[in-house]
């Protein structure tokens, strides 16, 4: 990459984010400039069928082969770039806020972790804890966001990358990556807003709440994934999954043979109702914990953000401003990264988690 030598001379970093999903493996490489970011590369590779289930690696060999193809194609000569991957929230990740009192000259790290481990579910011996300080009080109180992940999941990811010949700098969580992409690219005067980030994945969807610019909570939605939409369309229109995905990618509702556009729209809306109900429940739960406050905006990302009419449907049903999250909007791009046509909003939503990884501050 042309900027690689310049980055080394200036002491600037380049970070590669890798997001492994049920449908595809995505990567984004970002050059960290002093006042902005520049996207150097972005690409994806299909996830082998059955190799990644419920956000867990089921067939390491197949995923390793796909990962090597993706990385070799884009980074044939990896140097000392930071490499970050993410595990899925729905793979059993836990998060909660904890307050620890640390005396002067006390071991902050040990005290924060011990305080968290004193109560379930963080007292489990088969998990690894990490934390981020959110607020420091004058009397030694430290408010932290404590996160726990299963040791087995972390070990599986480390083994995958190591066996492929790559060394991970860090492992993050997908919902935090999306939040990071939003926070890192949103104007400062809007960060104080309370927003909800809806990641509509192939098999799972999550709703992440940011309150006054900080992570608040996450809810895993019981319905509303791309797969559930496909299942509804298949049942009501008699079409297979391949036709559904082609229709989504082309945003062409006329593709369904012997069905009018009105019939296809009706089936889509029926499928979207499940998602609306899940999001509505999640927002009510958030509001009950914040004295009735509601998000001012719902931002969509993930492959399902591009489902035909989903944004307008959610906006109408929830009476809430709704748009697709596009953290790439104000970024610089290396010409080779996206080509002359640029980056579509549809692709931006798919690459958002990988971008959040590449924007990670160490």
Automatic annotation (TrEMBL):
Domain of life: Bacteria
Pfam family for this entry, one: PilM_2
Gene3D superfamilies reported for this sequence: 3.30.1490.300, 3.30.420.40
Protein's name in the database: Type IV pilus assembly protein PilM
Natural source organism: Fibrobacter intestinalis
